[in-house]
Amino acid sequence: xxxxxxxxxxxxxxxxxxxxPLFERGARGVEPTLYGRALLDGSVEMFDDLRQTxxxxxxxxxxxxxxxxxxxxxxLAASFVSGVVERVSARYPRIAFRILGLESTxxxxxxxxARNIDLVVARPPEMEFxxxxxxxxxxxxxxxxxxxxxxxxxxxxRLSLADLSAEAWVLPPSGAAPGLLVDDAFRALGIEPPHRxxxxxxxxxxxxxxxxxxxxxxxxxxxxxxxxxxxxxxxLPVTPALPHVRIGxxxxxxxxxxxxxxxxxxxxxxxxxxLARARR
Length: 280
Hints:
Elements (H helix, E strand, L loop, with lengths): L3 H15 L4 E4 L2 E4 L1 H28 L4 E7 L1 H5 L1 H12 L3 E7 L3 H9 L5 E4 L10 E9 L1 E6 L10 E2 L8 E3 L7 H10 L7 E4 L3 H8 L5 E5 H4 L8 E3 L2 E2 L5 E8 L6 H19 L3
Parallel strand pairs: 3-4, 3-5, 8-13, 9-10
Antiparallel strand pairs: 1-2, 5-14, 6-14, 7-11, 7-12
Helix pairs in contact: 4-9
């Protein structure tokens, strides 16, 4: 609701204060200069700090109100992170959650660096993010091959990955975890990755398809612990075991963390303890 002349006047005043041009005006429109881009980047941090401060004040007035933005993979969104939301919401129903499910771990940390989210629950960041991200290890997420009870291999006491190469699998798209782990495990044995009879990112979809007894898939501990009542699926005794993944909590260094986010982080740590004690 700001008029164009008002914006132009504000920009002119800023340029007068700084003594530097903030925008280049040309036939194609207006583009920020190097100085303008630096001002924009600093403004993102400034307004984020302001947002965190306002939430801190709101928390002092009412410690049960606020919002938390979490980025994680689809598996953790459907399992561990949903468990955190369920637990916190039961005690603090006025805390709002925004869960951003992403396939790419680097994209999650990019969103954190842009201050679009408050924390990441995922694998460790790549080296390029290490100087900017604090990563706290939570648990090892072990991966298992899973079949329905009616699958023809469900009663086998011992299986190798080679035994599963000709089976029908339903996995996430190529390049997405944990399907990528499956492909790499087969290639390490000199075997072509198994045929994807179906692709589905959402764990619930693959859980339902596997329960038919016609498909195999892979689920990590974090997902299997969320579905303890499922009697129609079974973890297969496969060797060699699939690689495990380190899961932790990522936050931005030197960033003010509002009290509501701190409260949620406490519950994340508590719910991670049983998974940290789990063994393959």
